[in-house]
Amino acid sequence: MIKIAMIEDDLELAEVLSLYLKQFNIEVTNYEEPFLALSSLKLQKFDLIILDLTLPGMDGLDVCKEIVEKFNIPIIISSARSDITDKVTALKLGADDYLPKPYDPRELEIRIRTILRRFNKSLEKEELNVKKTFVLDEEKKEIKKDGVYLKLTAAEFEILSLFIKREGFIVSREDIFENSDILNSDYESSGSLAVIINRIRHKIEDNPREPNYLHTIRGMGYKFIQ
Q: Which regions of 114-179 does DSSP assign to beta strands (E)?
C-alpha cells in the first residue's frame, strides 16, 4: 500500500482524490492545516506528499521548503495558482513535480507512480522482479499471458486493460462504460458487455465456467485477480 500525505484545505477535492486513488492501492491522509501536517510527518512514514500552495496560516511554498529541509519525501505541488514564478520557485526549493489545477485524477495517479519509481529504486526493482501472468503494454495496445500475445478485439483489449490496471478491486459496469472510448449505450442495452466478458474469459481462462482470473461479483461487477 502506497501511503500519501495530502496537504489540502479544499476538503471536497481531497475526498474526491482520496476515493479515486484508493482503487489503485494508494492510501491518502489529508491535512487541512499545514502545521498539523508537518507535525504528523515526524510521527508517521509517508511515501509522497501532495501539497497545495494556498493554505491557512502558512504559505505552501514555505511548507515545501520546510519539508525539503527536514524530510526525505518526494513532493507533488497541486495548485490553482497560475503564476509561473510559483512553479519555478517550488521546483527550485526541491518539489519533484508541479500539477496545476484543475487536472484529471488519472494524471495524478500516473505522476505519483512515476515519481516513486524514480525516487525509490528498490521499489522499482521489486516491481520489475514480480512476475505477473498478464502484462499490459498500453503503448503497443498489447496484452501478454505468460509471455504469449492474446488476440483481442479493440473492445476486449480496452476492458481487459481496465481490469489489469485495477487488479484486486471491484470494477462495476458503470466503471467500464465511464472509462471506455469504444463502448456506448448500445452495448449496455443489448447486453453485449456480458458477451465481451464471456469472450475474454474464453481467451484467458483454462476453464471459463470456473474462472481463476476474472470473477463476477454478484450485484457489484467484476474483480480481476492474478
A: 134-137, 142-145, 148-149, 170-171
Nearest to 164 by CA among 212, 217, 223: 223
Q: Please answer whether residues 134 and 144 qualify as being in contact, where contact means their C-beta atoms are separated by less than 8 angstroms.
A: yes
What pLDDT does residue 183 have?
74
Neighbours of 25 (CB within 10 A): 12
DSSP bridge pairs for 144: 135, 149
* 203: Cα within 13 Å, side-chain hemisphere: 19
Q: What cell does 221 get?
A: 461487477
CA–CA separation, 138 and 199 (whole Å): 20
CATH, residue 146 = 1.10.10.10
The enclosing domain of 25 has a CATH number of: 3.40.50.2300
Domain span holding position 120: 2-126
3-state secondary structure of 53: coil
pLDDT band at residue 128 using 50, 70 and 90 as cut-offs: very low
Predicted TM-score (pTM) of the model is: 0.57
